[in-house]
Sequence to fold (297 residues):
Amino acid sequence: MNLRDLRYLLAVADHRSFGRAAEACGISQPTLSVQIRKLEDLLGVTLFERSSRKVVPTPACERLLGHVRAAVAEADAILAAARELRDPLAGHVRLGIIPTLAPYLLPLIFMPLREALPRLEVEPWEDQTAGLLARLRTHELDAALLASEVDGPDLDSRPLFDEPFLAGLPPGHPLAARAVVAEGELAQDILVLTDGHCLRDQALAICGRDGALGGPLRAASLATLLNMVAAGYGTTLVPGLAAGAAEDAGIVLRPLASRAGRTVRLAWRARCPRRAALQAVGDVIAHRLRGFAGKAV
Fold:
């Protein structure tokens, strides 16, 4: 048994297709099939049920996958530690980022990251908080940019910057005449994102509403939410980095009376061997957004 064949096994299990798995692994499909057959012979169990339409892991494979992922993750950790010893600021960093942050933050930080860390390639992955945390724990990501605290002794985090919320109002809304808006005044017609977005929970908590009363619309993206507010369907809370996009959509923005906001954090596995690279990435982002809260309100 070798590490290469274990990677092949994970690729087939994840893609549920020999063709897509072979493409991901950079080999031909016949070669992949032969290696999986050899692995099955070695282990003495059938790993996949094959048909013309799909490939499904067998119960035996499902029981082995956790061990295989752990073995591959440990091997990757050895390689990462070795790279860290050679050059801690070189290589790849797989960086997760939540959807309400990604479109607005990434354009601000990619050039500074390239300039400050020219030998480090940052690979972004957009997903909701729960998905990013799961990928962190399974070693599919090295770090994640989140807007909520992380739980558990297996994860560490550091705050990078504070992002204020603004009241987002349709043109002509009664509150648009105010210089400052109290959060509770948004509650009657506030629109929020679908379940799973931390911004949804933060908006409802700040405005004093529970999940069952958060307005008639459940948008899957912040862009949809902003367009619905601009069309007069209700109000919302707008993260400060999205202020430009909100104004471009025709939304009126007003500061909140309590200056409520969220803290953007960089999270990583406590035992991640790439700590120096992650700290350097965090330093660049924090420096780029220094003073942002004071300018955005």
